[in-house]
C-alpha cells in the first residue's frame, strides 16, 4: 500500500465517516490527491459513499487498513519502546479527560481550568516527538493541535470540545484511536476503563 | 546623553514589596485583585493569614532586568518574608528548630486572565522541615502528603513537568517515607523527586527560598505567556500593566484543637435561601472537602469548640456580604481554635438560587434592579424554563418498576424518545419528526450524526469522561453512561437489561441528573414551581429594555408558564401545530383536497368539519389565556411542510394558491376561531396570514374577517417589507419572521431552517451576528415607515443570536418559543442601557 493510499484509508478509518475535505484535513494531503485515492479505493470497493459525499470503509477496506497497520507497525508493537510510549500517552490521557470534564463543568468561571487543559495538550504534543521517527505522519497531529490551540487561545472556545469542528477533543480522540490501532488493541478496552 | 538616565525614573525597589495590611485596598492596579481583597478583609477586621504582595510595577523591573529579580528586589522580598516569619512565629525552611513556615504563591493581575500562573501551595518543605511538620502535627502521612502536593503543583506549574509522571516515578520512595518518616526516607524521597524532574526540567531547586524565587519568576513569566498576551490583545488590555505576586502564610487545619477546614456559603447555593450553608472537616486541609474524600460535618450540626467558630463565621459572613453586596463562598481553616478566612469570592450557585439571590438582594436594598439583571446569566434562565419530567409521572414510573437501570449521570437534563441503537437509523427517524434516544455500547465520532439529533444519549460502557459524556455535554443533551447491566445489540435492534428485552422503537426516558433509564414515556413540561422570582426579575428586565416578548405557547402548561413569568401576550401560535396536536390535521388535509377537487362542494364537507376542528384545537389554549392577546397563524399552503404533507401538491387547484389563498378555508378558520373565542370568553384574538407579498392582501384579509376578528400577518419576504408604508397604522400585529426573511432574501431552501446544523449556543448579548446588510436596510426602512407599535420580530432559535441587533434597530416587540422567551427577556434587559450594560 502506498503512503497516500494508507493515509486516505486511515483517515476514513479513524473518522469512521468522513467527507473528502475531512480526509484532506486529517491526512494532510491535497484535495486532488484525496480525490484520486478515494476514486481508486472506491473502485477496489474498499470504501463507499453513503450519501452527501460522506465516505465509509467497507469490510474489505477495514481489513486492508488493519493489515497495513500490522505491516507498518509490527516491529514497533513488538518493541518495549512502544509500550513505554503508550504508557506515557495513557498517563496524559487520564489527566486530559479529567481536565476536559472540569472545564465543561465550571471553565466559564475558573480560568485555571482551560490553562490546565491546554498545558496537557502541549505536553502531549511534546510527547509525540518521541515517536516522530517511527511514525512521521504524527507530525500532522501536532499541526492540528496547534491550529486548534491557536483558535482556543484567541477566544474561540468551540475548538475545545465541539464535535462539529476540528476541536482539541476530536483530535485527541482520533489520536487515541490511531495509537490503539498502531498497537493492535481494541478500542473497547480503553473506553471501558473510566 | 545623561538625559537617558534622567527620563527613566529609578523605582524604589524596596517599596515594591509590602505587607498586605499596609496597602490601599482600592488600588487593584498596583496590587492585583487577590492582595487588594486580602487588604479589604483585613480592613474589615477579618482574620486573614499574614501575607505580602509584590507590586505590579516589579513585573516590568523583572523584564527590564533580563528576566531576573534584581538584588534590591530580592532583599525586599527577604525583609517581607521575615515579616511573615515574625507574625507567624514560623520560619521558611525551618532552620533552628522553629516550626516550618509554609506559603502559597499566587499571581494577581487587576483583571484575571487565562495563561496566568495558577496557585502554588505548601511551599516551604524540604527533607528536613518535613520532619518538623510531621512531629508538630503528629502525623507523618499528612506531612509527606503536604510535601508531595507541593511538588505536584510546583512541577506542573513552575517547571512544566507532568505531576502524574512524577507521582509514578516516586511512588516507592513515597510509600517508604509514609511508612516510616525519618531523615533517610525523606532524603531518599527528595532525591527521587529531583531525579524524576531532571528529565523534564533543567533546574530543580530543593531549597524553599530558591523555590519561592522560582515561583515568583514563574508568575512574572506567565504575564508574558502567549496565552496571556493573546488575551490582552483580544480585550485591548495593555501589556504594560503587569501582574502582582501575593505570598501568603498557610494555616493548617490539623494543628491543635479545634482544627479543621471547610467552605461556607452565605446563602444556600441550590435555593438561594439566606442562611449560612456549608460544611467543615475536622482536622483536615481544604482540598479534601472539595474533592469529597472524607466525611464533612454540616455547619448547622457543629459540635464542641466548632459551634463557637461557626457563630464567628456567621458574623464574618454578614460583614462580608454587606461589603461585597453578593452571596459569597468563604474558604476557612481553624488552627488550634483560631479561625482564618483563606478565600472569599462570589458564590457559585444553581440557576434557581441565582435568580432568588438577585431578587432578594434588591429586596434587601443591597443592589439595584439593573445590578440584579447582571447577576443572572441568560443560560441560567434557559435552564429554569427547560422541560423536566412531571414529578407524578416519574414517581409512577418508579413504582411500576419501569426503571431499567441506573448508570452514571454524565450530562444533565430530561429527555425521552424511541430507543434507536444505531446512529444512522437515529438520524433517519429524527428526520421524520420522531424524538429518538440513542442507545449504544459506547460512542465514537461515527455516532455523531445520531447524537446531534438525539433527545438523549445512553451508553453501556464508559465513565463521566467518555466520548459520549464529553460530547453530550458539549451538545447540551441529557446523557447516561456506564450502564453496566445493559447489553446492546445494534444489529438485532434490541437491548437487554436485567432479563428485560427492549426493542428498537420502544419509548424510553432518560434522566441525565440521576442516571435513570426508564421504560416508556415520562412526559415533560416546564416546571411551574419556582417561577415567581424569575417573573419578578424578567419584569425588571422588561422595564429596563422596554421590550415585550410574546411566547409561542402551544399547551395550557406553556400558557401557565407564560402567565407566571409575566408575558404580555401569546405570540405566533401555529394553527397547524394546534390541529396536529389535537388530531385535527386530517380534517384540514381533507378540506384542502375537497376544496381543490370541487370548489363548489357543500359547506357540510368543507367549512363545517374544518371549523369544528379549529374550534376544538383552539379551545384549551383560549381557556387558559383569558386576558392575554393571542396571535394565531393560519396554515400556509405554500410552506415546505404543506408541500410534504399534501399528496399531489403540484395538482392542487390554482385558486388555492392565489394571493390571499383559499377563501373558503379562511372563512372556516375564522368561523371556528370565532366560536372558540366566544365559548372561552376570549376577546383578544388576532389571526395572522403568512406569506403575503403586499399590504393589499392584508386589506383583503381584514375585509374577509369582518369586524369581530383582528387581521394581522407574518412577514416572511423582502417584497412585503418593501411595501412598509402600506403596513403602517394597522390594528393587528405584524410579525417579521427574521429567519424566513433572511432565507428568502438569500434564496436558500426552506429545509435549511429545519436542519439545525449548528451546535446549540446561548443567545448572548455580545458579538452577535447582525443580519446581512440589505436585510438590515429593509428592516430599518420598515421601522421608519411602519413604526414599531404593531411591528414585531419573530426570533426562532436559529435567529436568536441577532436579538440584540434587532433591538438596536429599534424593535421592541418580539415573539419566540416559550423556553427562549424568558432567556431573551433577560438578554434584552442586560443589553439595554438602563439594564446596567457597560461600555
Description of the molecule:
The complex is a heterodimer of chains A (194) and B (839). In chain A, 72% of the residues lie in helices and 5% in strands. With 194 residues, chain A is mainly α. In chain A, helix 1 (3-15) packs across helix 4 and helix 5 packs antiparallel against helix 9. Chain A starts with a helix and ends with a helix. Chain A is built from 10 helices and 3 strands; from the N terminus they run H-E-H-H-E-E-H-H-H-H-H-H-H. Chain A has a 3-stranded antiparallel β-sheet. Chain A has helices at residues 3-15, 20-27, 31-43, 59-78, 80-106, 111-128, 139-153, 158-161, 168-183, 187-192; strands at 18-19, 47-49, 54-57. Chain A is globular. Chain B has 839 residues and is an alpha/beta fold. In chain B, helix 14 (351-363) packs across helix 16 (378-384). Chain B is elongated and about 110 Å long.
Summarize the structure.
The complex is a heterodimer of chains A (about 190) and B (about 850). Chain A has helices at about 5-15, 20-25, 30-45, 60-80, 80-105, 110-130, 140-155, 160, 170-185, 185-190, and strands at about 20, 45-50, 55.
Give me some keywords for this one.
heterodimer, A: 194 residues, mainly alpha, three-stranded antiparallel beta sheet, 10 helices, 5% strand, globular, B: 839 residues, alpha/beta, eight-stranded mixed beta sheet, eight-stranded parallel beta sheet, 34 helices, 44% helix, elongated, disordered N terminus
Q: What is the chains' assembly state?
A: heterodimer
Largest interface: A-B, 43 and 45 residues
- The chain-level mean pLDDT of chain A equals 88
- The assigned structural class of chain A equals mainly alpha
Amino acid at each position: 500500500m502506498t503512503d497516500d493510499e494508507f493515509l486516505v484509508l486511515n483517515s476514513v478509518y479513524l473518522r469512521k465517516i468522513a467527507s473528502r475535505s475531512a480526509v484532506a484535513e486529517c491526512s494532510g494531503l491535497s484535495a486532488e490527491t484525496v480525490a484520486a485515492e478515494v476514486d481508486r479505493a472506491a473502485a477496489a470497493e474498499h470504501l463507499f459513499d453513503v450519501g452527501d459525499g460522506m465516505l465509509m470503509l467497507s469490510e474489505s477496506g477495514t481489513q486492508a487498513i488493519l493489515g497495513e497497520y500490522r505491516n507498518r507497525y509490527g516491529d514497533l508493537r513488538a518493541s518495549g519502546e512502544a509500550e513505554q510510549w503508550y504508557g506515557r500517552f495513557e498517563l496524559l490521557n487520564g489527566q486530559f479527560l479529567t481536565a476536559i470534564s472540569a472545564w465543561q463543568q465550571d471553565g466559564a468561571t475558573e480560568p485555571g481550568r482551560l490553562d490546565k487543559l491546554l498545558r496537557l495538550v502541549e505536553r502531549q504534543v511534546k510527547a509525540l516527538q518521541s515517536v516522530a521517527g517511527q511514525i512521521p505522519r504524527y507530525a500532522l497531529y501536532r499541526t492540528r493541535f496547534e491550529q486548534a490551540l491557536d483558535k482556543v487561545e484567541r477566544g474561540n472556545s468551540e475548538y475545545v470540545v465541539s464535535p462539529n469542528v476540528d476541536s482539541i477533543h476530536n483530535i485527541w480522540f482520533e489520536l487515541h484511536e490511531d495509537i490503539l490501532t498502531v498497537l493492535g488493541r481494541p478500542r473497547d478496552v480503553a473506553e471501558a476503563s473510566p | 546623553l545623561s538625559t537617558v538616565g534622567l527620563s527613566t525614573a529609578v523605582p524604589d525597589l524596596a517599596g515594591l514589596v509590602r505587607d498586605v495590611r499596609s496597602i490601599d485596598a482600592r488600588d487593584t492596579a498596583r496590587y492585583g485583585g487577590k492582595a487588594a481583597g486580602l487588604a479589604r478583609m483585613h480592613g474589615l477586621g477579618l482574620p486573614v493569614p499574614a501575607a505580602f504582595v509584590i507590586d505590579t510595577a516589579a513585573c516590568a523591573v523583572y523584564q527590564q532586568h533580563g528576566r531576573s529579580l534584581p538584588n534590591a528586589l530580592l532583599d525586599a522580598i527577604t525583609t517581607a518574608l521575615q515579616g511573615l516569619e515574625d507574625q507567624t512565629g514560623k520560619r521558611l525552611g525551618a532552620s533552628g528548630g522553629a516550626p516550618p513556615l509554609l506559603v502559597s504563591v499566587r499571581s494577581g493581575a487587576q483583571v484575571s486572565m487565562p495563561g496566568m500562573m495558577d496557585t502554588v501551595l505548601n511551599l516551604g518543605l524540604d527533607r528536613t522541615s518535613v520532619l518538623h511538620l510531621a512531629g508538630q502535627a503528629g502525623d507523618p502521612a499528612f506531612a509527606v502528603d503536604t510535601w508531595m502536593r507541593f511538588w505536584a503543583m510546583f512541577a506542573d506549574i513552575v517547571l512544566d513537568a507532568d505531576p502524574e509522571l512524577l507521582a509514578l516515578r516516586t511512588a516507592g520512595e513515597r510509600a517508604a517515607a509514609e511508612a516510616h518518616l525519618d531523615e533517610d526516607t525523606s532524603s531518599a524521597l527528595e532525591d527521587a523527586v529531583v531525579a524524576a524532574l531532571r528529565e523534564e526540567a533543567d533546574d530543580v531547586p530543593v531549597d524553599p527560598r530558591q523555590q519561592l524565587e522560582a515561583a515568583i519568576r514563574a508568575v512574572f513569566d506567565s504575564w508574558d505567556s502567549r496565552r496571556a498576551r493573546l488575551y490582552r490583545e483580544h480585550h485591548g488590555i495593555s501589556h504594560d500593566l503587569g501582574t502582582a505576586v501575593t505570598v501568603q502564610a498557610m494555616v493548617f487545619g490539623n494543628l491543635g484543637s479545634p482544627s479543621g477546614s471547610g467552605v461556607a456559603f452565605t446563602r444556600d447555593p441550590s435555593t438561594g435561601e439566606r442562611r449560612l450553608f456549608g460544611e467543615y472537616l475536622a482536622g483536615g486541609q481544604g482540598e479534601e472537602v472539595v474533592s469529597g474524600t472524607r466525611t464533612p460535618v454540616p455547619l448547622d450540626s457543629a459540635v464542641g469548640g466548632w459551634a463557637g467558630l461557626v457563630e464567628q463565621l456567621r458574623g464574618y459572613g454578614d460583614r462580608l456580604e454587606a461589603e461585597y453586596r453578593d452571596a459569597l463562598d468563604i474558604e476557612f481553616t481553624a488552627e488550634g481554635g483560631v479561625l482564618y478566612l483563606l478565600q472569599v469570592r462570589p458564590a457559585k450557585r444553581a440557576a434557581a438560587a441565582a435568580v432568588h439571590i438577585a431578587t432578594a438582594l434588591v429586596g434587601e436594598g443591597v443592589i439595584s434592579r439593573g445590578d440584579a439583571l447582571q447577576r443572572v446569566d441568560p443560560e441560567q434562565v434557559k435552564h429554569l424554563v427547560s422541560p423536566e419530567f412531571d414529578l407524578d409521572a416519574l414517581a409512577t414510573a418508579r413504582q411500576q418498576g419501569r426503571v431499567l437501570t441506573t448508570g452514571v449521570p454524565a450530562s444533565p437534563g430530561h429527555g425521552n424518545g424511541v430507543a434507536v441503537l444505531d446512529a444512522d437509523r437515529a438520524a433517519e427517524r429524527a428526520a421524520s419528526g420522531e424524538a429518538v434516544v440513542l442507545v449504544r455500547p459506547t460512542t465514537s465520532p461515527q455516532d455523531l450524526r445520531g447524537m446531534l439529533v438525539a433527545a438523549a444519549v445512553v451508553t453501556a460502557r464508559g465513565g463521566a469522561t467518555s466520548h459520549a459524556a464529553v460530547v453530550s455535554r458539549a451538545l447540551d443533551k441529557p446523557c447516561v453512561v456506564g450502564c453496566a447491566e445493559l447489553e446492546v445489540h445494534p444489529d438485532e435492534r434490541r437491548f437487554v437489561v436485567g432479563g428485560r428485552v427492549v426493542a428498537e422503537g420502544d419509548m424510553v426516558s432518560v434522566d441525565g441528573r440521576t442516571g435513570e433509564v426508564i421504560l416508556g414515556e415520562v412526559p415533560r413540561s416546564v416546571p411551574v414551581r419556582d417561577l415567581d422570582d424569575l417573573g419578578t426579575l424578567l419584569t425588571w428586565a422588561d422595564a429596563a429594555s422596554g421590550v415585550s416578548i410574546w411566547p409561542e405557547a402551544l399547551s395550557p402548561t406553556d400558557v401557565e408558564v407564560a402567565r407566571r413569568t409575566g408575558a404580555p401576550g401569546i405570540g405566533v401560535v401555529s394553527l397547524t401545530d394546534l390541529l396536529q396536536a389535537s388530531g385535527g390535521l386530517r380534517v384540514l388535509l381533507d378540506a384542502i383536497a375537497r376544496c381543490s377537487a370541487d370548489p363548489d362542494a357543500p359547506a357540510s364537507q368543507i367549512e363545517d368539519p374544518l371549523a369544528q376542528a379549529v374550534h376544538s384545537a383552539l379551545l384549551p389554549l383560549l381557556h387558559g389565556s383569558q386576558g392575554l392577546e393571542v396571535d394565531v397563524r393560519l396554515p400556509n399552503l405554500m410552506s415546505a411542510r404543506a408541500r410534504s404533507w399534501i399528496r399531489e401538491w403540484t395538482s392542487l387547484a390554482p385558486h388555492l394558491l392565489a394571493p390571499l389563498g383559499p377563501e373558503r378555508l379562511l372563512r372556516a378558520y375564522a368561523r371556528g376561531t370565532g366560536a372558540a373565542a366566544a365559548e372561552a370568553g376570549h376577546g383578544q384574538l388576532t389571526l395572522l396570514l403568512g406569506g403575503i407579498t403586499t399590504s393589499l392582501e392584508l386589506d383583503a384579509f381584514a375585509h374577509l374577517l369582518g369586524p369581530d376578528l383582528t387581521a394581522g400577518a407574518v412577514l416572511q419576504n423582502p417584497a412585503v417589507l418593501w411595501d412598509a408604508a402600506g403596513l403602517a397604522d394597522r390594528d393587528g400585529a405584524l410579525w417579521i419572521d427574521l429567519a424566513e426573511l433572511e432565507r428568502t432574501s438569500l434564496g436558500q431552501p426552506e429545509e435549511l431552517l429545519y436542519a439545525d446544523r449548528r451546535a446549540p449556543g446561548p443567545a448572548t448579548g455580545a458579538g452577535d451576528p447582525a443580519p446581512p446588510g440589505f436585510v438590515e436596510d429593509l428592516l430599518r426602512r420598515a421601522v421608519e415607515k411602519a413604526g414599531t407599535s404593531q411591528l414585531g420580530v419573530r426570533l426562532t432559535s436559529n435567529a436568536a443570536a441577532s436579538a440584540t441587533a434587532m433591538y438596536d434597530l429599534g424593535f421592541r416587540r418580539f415573539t419566540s418559543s416559550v423556553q427562549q422567551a424568558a432567556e431573551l427577556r433577560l438578554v434584552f434587559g442586560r443589553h439595554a442601557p438602563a439594564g446596567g450594560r457597560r461600555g
